[in-house]
Write a structure and sequence with these properties.
alpha/beta; 2 helices; three-stranded parallel sheet; single chain; globular
Length: 71
Amino acid sequence: LTGLRALYLPWNRLTARGLRALLETPALANLELLHLYKNELGADGMRVLAALAPASLQSLNVCFNALGAEG
């Protein structure tokens, strides 16, 4: 999986905790595209994403994640 460049995970009920586990996986170090629409990330998930997103990330979709004013 080290060559993984794109990951689509819509409608998975992914939370901030799950996102943290996902982004801490070394196999995603070269990820360029991440689509996480329609999950349950919230503002906490956005903080996780800001801290752990791979530097190679070029495209991100987090629509419909109840981000609120904080997110």
